[in-house]
Amino acid sequence: MNEETKTGLSRRSLARGAAWSIPVISAAVAVPLASASVQAPLEGIVVQGRCAGLGLLGRHFRITASADPIPAGSVLTIRKESGLGVSLIDWNLEGFGGLLSVAAIDSNTVAYTFNDEWSGQGSIGSAVNVDVAVRLYATLALPAGYEAGETSKLEGSIRNTLVVCRDE
Q1: How far apart are CA 115 and CA 22, in angstroms?
Q2: pTM here?
Q3: Residues 6+ apart with CB under 8 A from 66
Q4: Looking at the chain, which terminus has fewer C-beta neighbours within 10 angstroms, N or C?
Q5: What is the radius of gyration, based on Cα positions, of the chain?
C-alpha cells in the first residue's frame, strides 16, 4: 500500500498546499501592522517661561497649543531648583477650564496632568513672589505614541533673583 492510499494525500499535494499557505499567512500577519496608525508629530505646542516686570511681580509659564491640541494624559511638571523663595499668592491656573489634575511630587516639584485633550493658551504662575536665586523649570511630557514636531517647544525656564526675572 502506498502512502497516498493510506491518507488520501500525497507528499506532492502536501508540499504544494504548504507552498501556497506561506504567502497567505504572511499577508494576514502584515495587514494589522500596516493598518496600525502612526501619530504625526504634534506642532505648535509651546511651554514658555514668562516674567512680568521686576523679580517681585508675576512670573508664570505660558502654555500654548495653537496648531495641534495637547493630548489627554500629557503631564506638565514644574520644578524649583536652588535658592529660597516664597510666593505670596500661590500658583494659579488660568485658561485650562478644570482640565488639569494636580499632584505634588515633592516639596520642589508639582505635576499637572491633562485629563482631556486641550488647545488654546493658558498660564500657571504666581502674582507676587519674593525669591533669592531661584530657577524654575517646566517640562511637558507627551503620552506614549506622541512626539513633538519642529514648531513645538516642550520646556521653559525662569531665573529669578530678588529684583531681576529672566525667562529662558
Answers
A1: 46
A2: 0.70
A3: 44, 45, 46, 119, 121
A4: N
A5: 28
